[in-house]
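Good morning C.,

I know you're traveling, so I'll keep this short. The sequence:
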Amino acid sequence: MFCNALQSGWNCNKVWISALFSCQDRRMTESENQFLTRIGPGTPMSNLMRQYWIPVLQSTDLPERDGASLRVGILCENLVAFRNSDGKVGLIDPVCPHRCASLFFGRNEDNGLRCLYHGWKFDVDGHCVDVPNEPPRSKFNGQIKVTAYSCVEKMASFGPPAVCMETSCCSEKKIPGQGVTPPQ
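The tokens, ready to paste straight into the viewer:
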């Protein structure tokens, strides 16, 4: 799996490592190795990788609208992918914020993924669009959201929405971001 391969560390050749750190006759230190190989949320390499579109699934993995959802693990995050009634692909946090039930087991219906525990329904943007036990005029569901990542049929974006608005995979546009420097 992509996440495990990066986390376990790369057995890179000495030329690539030395070119990266501009030092020909030394091995990579443990802190440099940690810097390069850790991709969990909040790490420097994760922040760098989340500025770019990343292939996550093939379209054939989610062939039908309102079909079965899939578990996806990428960048050390567990997520749920689903295709809604309109054909849009969603990639959201698998844990319902109500009682921590897995949304993987939820029902994919009417443009959302409904938790099987108490029926809260989330759209592809992570917004809670229905809470069955609330009165019709209640705005409680507007306060609830799960983590969701922007998706297009080509790729998924793990960065902030403002950074990842460009959806062309052949774009020459440079994405502004914080520079990543090796640890001292």
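Safe travels,
E.
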